[in-house]
Amino acid sequence: MRIVRACLAATALVAAGGCLGDGGMVSLTFDQQSMVSPALTAFTASNATANTSDDGFVHFTATSASGTLTMLVVAPIHAGDTIDLMAEHNFVSFDVPGAGWSSNGGTLAVDSVSPDKVRFNAVPMLGGSGSAKGSFVINGTGTFK
After folding, report:
1. I need a labelling partner for 142 at 20 to 30 A (CA). Which of 67, 73, 85, 135 fits?
2. What's the CA gap between 13 and 4, in Å, rounded?
């Protein structure tokens, strides 16, 4: 009986929210590093999600062993949009345990929506919290589901 209940619960979750564990893929490089501490390497995550909230924002998240990428942009977004990260409320952050960096300009290009595919166009990052030091530029792509 427990197996039947577990199967029914899993089926309900799949029907309500898509495939279990079905996340997007993000692949980023941290270029033009200047005095960055703690050390950063490339970032890859296979669990990237995007959710539009009732308050009018799209919340993007991707986590891997090398850190957590979060973004907040004003909704709605459309294929072909260029999102200015200097505009109020739009930002990218990258965090590792005890340290975090925040965007200081740059743009995101929206290639498609549902899933949301974005390109990071030389997004400058500055140390913002904890022991984060230095600056770098994010380049790469992400598919957020």
Report:
1. 135
2. 14
CA neighbours within 13 Å on the CB side: how many for 101? Answer: 29
36-68 CB burial, b ≥16 within 10 A, e <16: beeebeebebebbbbeeeeeebbbbbbbeebbb
Spatial distance between the Cα atoms of 142 and 80, rounded to a whole number of angstroms? 15
Give the model confidence (pLDDT) of 116-139 as tens digits.
999 999 999 999 999 999 999 999
CA distance 126 to 11: 44
User: Is the model's pLDDT at 97 over the cut of 80?
Assistant: yes
Compute CA distances 137 → 6, 42, 65, 72, whole Å. Answer: 45, 11, 20, 18
Query: Closest Cα partner for 82 from 46, 118, 57?
Result: 118
pTM of the predicted structure, to 2 decimals: 0.83
